[in-house]
Design goal:
The protein has 3 domains: 77 residues, Archaeosine Trna-guanine Transglycosylase, Chain: A, domain 4, CATH 2.30.130.110; 130 residues, Ribose 5-phosphate Isomerase B, Chain: A (3-Layer(aba) Sandwich), CATH 3.40.1400; 187 residues, no CATH class. The protein has a 7-stranded parallel beta sheet with strand order 19-20-18-17-21-22-23, sandwiched between helices. Strands 1-2-5-8 form a 4-stranded antiparallel beta sheet, with no helix packed on it. A 4-stranded parallel beta sheet has the order 13-12-14-15, with helices on both faces. The chain is α/β, with parallel strands linked by helices.
């Protein structure tokens, strides 16, 4: 669904669209002869302008997809946004499996490679951290103090270790057990504990919490050993004693972690979590479809692309069910959406049409329009499977993992599921890191990229500027993925981001 970009101030995305997109800010009364329009408002870049007259109730189409309905009569050249575009549910045929296209998989000998770190069991790491995991919020401060002890100076003699990072949170007790919330929480902790990017793990508890470390390990199939050490503050002697014991435990882990070396491995070992945040009207024109093109390349090389943020495919879910490899896979996606409708009923959230202020300022009117761009990150290959939040992903190709739309929470689930790299598109500019995995930031427009160049890795605005095609941009993204997976630091890593973005999804009540 790539648009043809010209020097015109307006972009037509599809021949059947009745709105155009402002490539640059457009002035009141500005003539656009190539579309036979005289603009009837001052319209910011990324926003929509009516291409034809619309009657109240007419469907508004972008990329030949319904994103809402005219709330009143609209004249050609009018600004189309929240003031005259009504969000309204409508029937959508899932058309299961009707758009499944065979993938031209590359033989292993022709697959791209990157310099990865081999772990036991065939797992491949893109980074080499030691992790401190809190079993409960009560041990969060101690966990951070242990990690903070390992400064760059103290780690200087271990150059192959990327750092010591604490994964803390605000739960672990006061939870209903057994419950879905408790199961999801434990699954998330276990996913990080066994993540290949962690050479070794220390789990720190208080001692009296509901999330007992012993039962956590037993329920999740984790084993004690030199690479998985645990301690409880109440047994160890309190705050100071636990910090000292934790520091000693990590010091014992460092020599073996430092022995890790990189070697060429196939791109089929890449599992990439796809995120978008601070989206704008250009996200669906440049960054998201370009990332989708890169994921199509990755899938051909045997890798895995993980689309998530379930509320942000709402309204365009049929784009994915048409690509499902089976009706069962497509129905599982619809079942998750139905769960979300019930879960969020009566709340002022995205499932009820509302998007955040930054999205609106960037030209996105409602969740249907946002979802249209969000779904593009997954490319065009078949949807192989649908997973629960933080459930281990064992299927290669394009898959979906259920999650909230809140980026840190969604990315936390993807990493727990096995993602060893995150690709994050943004139009307004999101400052984000995701330890223990690298996070590549893709800007949708050049203006923002230039303003926030210290945080952005790739300027997909070159597509909007007419300098690169979606396919060319996708290849550049894929090449950058291989470099980053091989150890090249991202902008967020250079800035030290990622210590506070561990956000397990909390579904239940607090007692």
């Amino acid at each position: 669904m790539a648009a043809t970009i010209t020097a015109s101030p307006l972009i037509r995305l599809h021949a059947n669209d009745n709105v155009l997109i402002a490539r640059t800010p457009v002035a009141l009364a500005q003539e656009v002869p190539e579309f036979g329009l005289r603009v009837r408002a001052q319209v910011p870049a990324g926003h929509k302008i009516a291409a034809v007259a619309l009657k109240a109730g007419d469907a508004v189409r972008k990329y030949d997809t319904v994103i809402g309905f005219a709330a009143r009569d609209v004249e050609p050249g009018d600004h189309v946004h929240t003031h005259n575009l009504r969000f309204e549910e409508f029937d959508r045929d899932p058309e299961f499996c009707t758009d499944v296209q065979a993938v031209d998989y590359l033989p292993e000998a022709q697959q791209a490679t990157f310099m990865g770190i081999k772990r036991p069991g065939g797992r491949i790491a893109t980074r080499n951290y030691i992790g401190i995991i809190s079993s409960v919020n009560c041990s969060a401060t101690v966990s951070r103090r242990i990690a903070d002890w390992f400064t760059e100076e103290r780690l200087a003699e271990f150059p192959n270790v990327d750092g010591v990072v604490a994964f803390t949170h605000n739960t672990g007790c006061g939870m209903s057990t057994p419950s879905l919330n408790f199961d999801v929480f434990r699954r998330t902790l276990a996913g990080f504990a066994r993540h290949p990017n962690l050479a070794a793990v220390l789990i720190v508890g208080l001692g009296c919490e509901r999330n007992q470390i012993s039962s956590l390990l037993e329920s999740q199939g984790l084993d004690y050993g030199p690479k998985l050490v645990t301690m409880n503050m109440q047994d160890t002697g309190g705050t100071r004693a636990t910090i000292a014991a934790g520091v000693a435990a990590v010091q014992a882990m460092l020599p073996e972690a430092n022995a890790a070396t990189r070697e060429p491995v196939s791109a089929r070992h890449l599992s990439i979590g796809l995120q978008c945040g601070g989206s704008d009207g250009f996200s669906s024109i440049s960054a998201n479809p370009a990332l989708g093109a890169a994921m199509d390349i990755l899938v051909r090389h045997g890798g895995t692309a993980i689309l998530s943020e379930t509320p942000e495919i709402y309204g365009v879910e049929n784009m994915l069910t048409r690509r499902a490899v089976s009706e069962a896979v497509g129905q599982k996606l619809l079942d998750r959406l139905e769960w979300w409708k019930e879960y969020s009923a009566g709340q002022s959230g995205q499932m009820n049409g509302v998007v955040v202020a930054g999205n609106q300022a960037g030209g996105i009117a409602n969740i249907f329009e946002k979802s249209l761009g969000s779904a593009m990150k997954g490319g065009t290959t078949p949807l192989q499977a649908v997973y629960e939040y933080a459930e281990p992903i064992d299927q290669h190709g394009f898959v979906f993992m259920d999650s909230p739309g809140f980026d840190p929470c969604s990315a936390t689930g993807q990493i727990a599921s096995g993602a060893n790299l995150i690709c994050f598109t943004t139009g307004r500019g999101s400052m984000f890191g995701a330890k223990p995995v690298p996070s590549i930031k893709l800007a949708s427009n050049t203006v923002m990229f230039d303003r926030l160049s210290e945080d952005m890795d790739i300027n997909c605005g070159l597509v909007v500027d007419g300098e690169l095609s979606i396919e060319q941009m996708g290849q550049q993204i894929f090449d950058e993925i291989l470099r980053v997976a091989s150890g090249q630091p991202t902008k967020s890593e250079e800035l030290g981001l990622g210590d506070n973005e561990f956000v397990p999804w909390q579904l239940g009540i607090v007692t």
